Amino acid sequence: MHEYPDFVPRQRFQPTLALSPDAQTVAYSSNAGGNFDLWVVPSAGGEARQVTRLTDQTVRRIAWAPAGKSLVFAADREGDEQYRLYRVGLDDETPTELAPGPDCQRVLAFDPFDESGRFLVYAANDRDLTVQDLLVRDLSDDVERRIVPPQGVIFEPAGISPDGRWVLTAGFRTNSDIAAYLVDLTDPDSTAVCVTAEHGRGLFIPGPWAPDSTGFYLRTDVWGEFTCAARYSLLEGALEPVAQHDWDVEHVDAAGETLLWSVNEGGRSILHARRRDADLAFPALPQGVITSVALAASGDLIVVLIDSATRPSEIGVLGPAAGFRYLTDATPAAFHVVDPVEPEVITYPASGGRQVPALFYRPRTPGPHPVLLSIHGGPERQERPVYVCSGLYQYLLAQGIAIFAPNIAGSTGYGITHQSLIHRDWGGIDLDDLGHALRHLHTDPGIDADRIAVMGGSYGGFAALSCLARLPHSWIAGVSLCGPTNLVTLARACPPTWKAYVAAVLGDPDADTAHLTENSPITHADVVSTPLFILQGARDPRVPKTESDHFVTRLRDRGVDARYDVYPDEGHGFTNRNNELKAYGDIAQFLSGHLSLNSAERP
Q1: 429-442 vs 459-470: helix axis angle to the nearest 10?
Q2: Going along 175-298, which residue ranges are E strands?
Q3: Which domains does the chain have, with CATH numbers?
Q4: Do residues 81 and 48 lie in contact, with contact meaning Cβ atoms separated by under 8 Å?
Q5: Minimum mean pLDDT range among 215-224, 257-266, 573-582
Q6: Half-sphere exposure (CA, 13 Å, Cβ side) for 248?
Q7: Which of 379, 444, 428 is nearest to 406 (CA)?
Q8: What pTM does this model have?
Q9: CA distance 495 to 465
């Protein structure tokens, strides 16, 4: 019998890639050395090299300087999300901090340099903790220009136009209300102008500039339920679609005459490209989810970070002549003898005649099987066929435990209407969808409906606790990672720059106190009697540790079996490899122990 560590990938990656200007080197963030450090590997293949050796920081976003001799990156400490910016040469012993100062969120632009490498663009809430300003730093003299956003808008920059005149930035109000703004760098008094205002509120996520600076590409839902790729023309002030599908466009990149984009088709990523109005044919790409993509300046080489249910996240390159090849190998040891399981894509009925999509993983052994109801985070995220929780799904499947992972109301990928159903109704329509998931599982002859556990992280942790506290079912066990328990205190304690977003999506802690209280798991904690495992990062800036503290206390005061593991050097999730492996290993043991019990053996 295999143990959980046999299913663990050899390394994990942060969702960031950077391809050097000469397309010879790929930079990425990997925890192969213990922490998420900066690494580089030749795009032609070869040995990877570790560039940084950080002791308690995580490399998040990476970009090459235009000369190709150094990189900049953002990093936070022990998951606190107080990002700092650094520059490092490929042969430097230690990085140099850029824009030093007090702790705050410094958000590096996706393409942060002008073509000369003199100016660096980022955002920061150093002036006011509740506001994320746009900053353009002159690296020649360390002088900064600051652009303050409109009231209630959070800036996150995309990049500087190739001619050096414009800064393009996103202006966030919520995850579904994002506008595109331009700042004229030739005018020292210029303020940010919203160039998508005439189309009303919606999704306008800025992407790459056109090479001639006449416009930029973006993703928008202005023409329907799904996000498409579009081009904004500076000369005409016009927005026109360039790629529309009956699914969401999720990545857009451009180089020379090549436009590249990927489409989220039912959870899997499908890559497309066009050059001079002609579609490009690709060699076969492994089925999976593209979490990051980079396009060479020539348009002839594509680098992807691709994840799938049956192979952990890996870096690969795709070329028209050479086809696809992996640059990394994180394959776990168990896969030499175990055949991993692909999920089945299904839908099940819910209230109002809706159909809820879900991924259903069935073990290869005969049933009926116990099942884990697994709820994704967000809530505005999507359960997709990826290598979940460092191999936890595949380990449980090898133990004969099925996984049912629904995309309930609030999930992305199925249209803006489905996504926005949960706004200001956490613990409402989403919990109703989970109740219907239980009903569906009870009708499946391959499932042992007397052995169902529930698990989730972040929002998914909240949903898992809501299931235990508010859905009438004899749950076998529950797991919550960094899950909110009190929506009122969660709204009040959110990061300062999130205040407007939280009020719009979760609710106002003062105006909506009664509703938020009623839908909070802590309100119904005295109903919970299921064995429960709660994990929490002590430095979590999104879901404070007190959320878990209070819930565990309420359970233990009643003698409920509640295991509580706090990681003092982690934030919202895991950045330290040893911590991650211990946490998921403990979860694997907890769930398999409870779900594998026969009815007569259950306590």
Answers
A1: 70
A2: 177-184, 193-194, 204-209, 215-220, 228-233, 238-243, 248-255, 258-265, 268-275, 278-279, 289-295
A3: 341-596 (3.40.50.1820)
A4: no
A5: 573-582
A6: 23
A7: 379
A8: 0.89
A9: 23
